[in-house]
Write a structure and sequence with these properties.
Strand 2 and strand 3 form a beta hairpin. This protein is an all-beta fold. The protein has no helices and 4 strands. The protein is globular and about 35 Å long.
Length: 71
């Protein structure tokens, strides 16, 4: 299992998911340590645990999800 995930994911209505919608040709990080978060270029939407945390440049304040640790 890669990264602790046992099987391929399936996206269905009502399921919880982590999803990133991006253009690999244009992804660029604008983060600067210690500064307010800046939205990346080329990543349009990020959904964590079914909650949208990045929507076309708007970064949500919610921080859903949890750390996956290898056991």
């Amino acid at each position: 299992a890669e990264r602790g995930v046992e099987s391929p994911a399936v996206i269905v209505v009502g399921a919880v998911a982590d999803v990133v919608g991006f253009d690999p040709e244009t992804v660029l990080d604008h983060a600067d340590f210690g500064q307010r978060p800046n939205a990346p270029t080329g990543i349009d939407v990020v959904v964590v645990g079914g909650t949208v945390v990045l929507d076309h440049g708007v970064i949500a304040t919610d921080r859903p999800g949890r750390v996956l640790r290898r056991t």
